[in-house]
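Dear support,

I submitted the protein below through the web form. The confirmation email said the job was done, but the results page showed an empty box. After a refresh the structure appeared. I'm attaching both so you can tell me whether what I see now is the final result or a partial one.
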Amino acid sequence: MQSIKSICVYCGSQPGNEPEFIEAAKTLGTSLAERNIRLVYGGGSRGIMGAVSQSVQDNGGKVLGIIPDFLLPKEGEWDQSSENLEIAITHNMHERKQRMFEESDAFIALPGGIGTLEEIVEIITWAQLGRHQKPIAFLNTNNFWQPMLELINHMKTSGFIHTANKVNPIVIDKAEDVIIRLNL
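What the results page shows now:
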């Protein structure tokens, strides 16, 4: 396995209804910063996105936020004085996702909505198609991802995932276990 220097975190631009979601994001951010692993994320300043990014920065870690220009008015309110935050602006979501992929050595999904789901499914699809062999994980805080994990298993047992050996995301229940489970 290659050395992991940057992790892409897919997560919600909203905080969700459970305080554990934000706490997990903060714990993950601290762990990344402590190990000098750069956070690559969707560039938002709110919700779980904002929490994980701020936690990395507060603990001296580096952050690359990648955001399409049309989201700037909604989600682009950062502390411009932070020297640990780099923001890359793209023209659209496709460019954003491609850049996030290129800048990352591993991927992890925290709780989020439709956008988070779409991003992690695309990265799993790329793995199945042989475009990469980078680790993929779900941070399953409060069993948030359980329905998705059951659906993936259902697809496997129903014969629709033709390369099931390439579709084996790591499932992590606690944010403090991410580093151990990803062997960082």
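Response: this is the final, complete result; the empty box was a page-load delay. Helices lie at 19-34, 47-58, 72-75, 93-102, 114-128, 146-157, 178-181.
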